[in-house]
Amino acid sequence: MSAYDFFTITSIVGLIILLIVLVYAIRSIKIIRPYEKGVVERLGKFLRVWEPGLHLLIPFVDRVTKVDMRENVVDVPPQEVITKDNVAVTVDAVVYYEATDPFKLIYNVTNFYLAATKLAQTNLRNVVGEMQLDESLTSREKINITLRDILDEATDKWGVRVVRVELQRIEPPADVTQAMHRQMKAERDRRAMILEAEGDRAAAIARAEGTKQSAILEAEGRATAIKEIADAERAQKILNAEGEAQAILNVFGAIHEGDPTQDLITVRYLETLKFVANGNATKIFMPLEVQGLANAAGVVGEMLGSTLNQDK
After folding, report:
1. What is the pLDDT of residues 235-266, one digit of tens each?
2. Is residue 81 a contact partner of residue 128, using CB atoms and an 8 Å limit?
3. CA–CA separation, 176 vs 183, rounded Å?
C-alpha cells in the first residue's frame, strides 16, 4: 500500500467520522416551539417534559414526542338522535379543547381525536334523548353547557380541558318541520285574534268610561246651575225682605217723627185692613210699638162695628 492510498483511505474514514459526528450533533439538538411541550423517553421509559426552547438529547437513545398545547377542535359527525317524544333529529356539534398535561395525553389515551369524537356522540345522544323536540330546539345553550361539563369531566384523566361545545344544527324531519311551521302560524293567528279582541274590549271600556264621565259632568253641571239659581233666588228674597223691613222701619220712624194722633192711627189702620184680610195669607212683621198701636186701633174698630150694628 502506497502512501497515497493510505492518505486516501484515511481521508475517507475521517470524512465518514465527520459526517457521523455532524449527524449526531444535528440529531441531538431539539427545538421546542412556544406553543409546544416535549415528552422525553430514554430507552422506552419516560424521562421528563421539556418546556419551549433549545434542548439536547442523546441520539438513538432518547426520543421526543411534541404535544401541541394550543386550543384544538373536534368535529363531531352528524348523527340521528331520538328525542323523548320519539322524533328523529339530525344533530352535529364541534368540541373545542386544549391540552393541560402532555404526559396524560400521551400515555392515557391512544387516539384522543377518535376517543373524543365517540365520547361526544354518545353523550350528545343521551342529552338530546332526554328532551322533548320543542325543548331541544330552544335549549341549545343548555345542551352546550351540559355536554361541555360531561366531556370535561370525562377527558380530565386524558390531560385535556374541554373549553366549550357548540351545536351546529338540530334538524328534525321534513314533515315535522312543516307541521311545526303550521303550528307556529296557528299560534301567531291565535295571538293576533286575542290581541284584537283585547283591543276591542279596551276601546269599548274607554268609550263607556267616557260616556259615564260625560253624564257625571253633565249632572254635576245641572246640579251646580240649580244650586246657583237657588242661591240667587234666596239672595233676592233676603234682599227683598231686608228692603221691606227697612221700608217699614222708615215708615215707623216717619210716623213717630210726625207725632201722629190716635185718630189718625186708627183711620190709617182701617184703610189697611182690606190688605191684611185679602186671603193671600200675607204676613207683615212690625216692631212692638207699632203692634201696640195696631191693637188699640183694632179695639176702636170693634167698637165702631158694634155701634153700626145697633143702628141697623
Report:
1. 888 888 888 777 777 766 666 666 666 666 66
2. yes
3. 10
- The pTM is what? 0.54
- pLDDT of amino acid 96: 94
What secondary structure does DSSP assign to 57-94, as a single string? --TTTEEEEEEE-SEEEEEEEEEEEE-TTS-EEEEEEE
Residue 79, pLDDT above cutoff 70: yes
Residue 167: CB atoms within 10 Å: 19
Give the contacts of 255 (CB within 8 A, at least 6 positions apart): 265
Distance CA 8, CA 255 (A): 181
Residue type, 30: K
Residue corresponding to grid cell 260625560: 214
The ranges assigned to domains in the chain are 3-68, 71-172, 183-252, 260-311
CB 33 within 8 A of CB 55: no
Structural class in CATH, domain 71-172 = alpha beta
- Give every CB contact of residue 21 below 8 A, 6+ residues apart in sequence: none
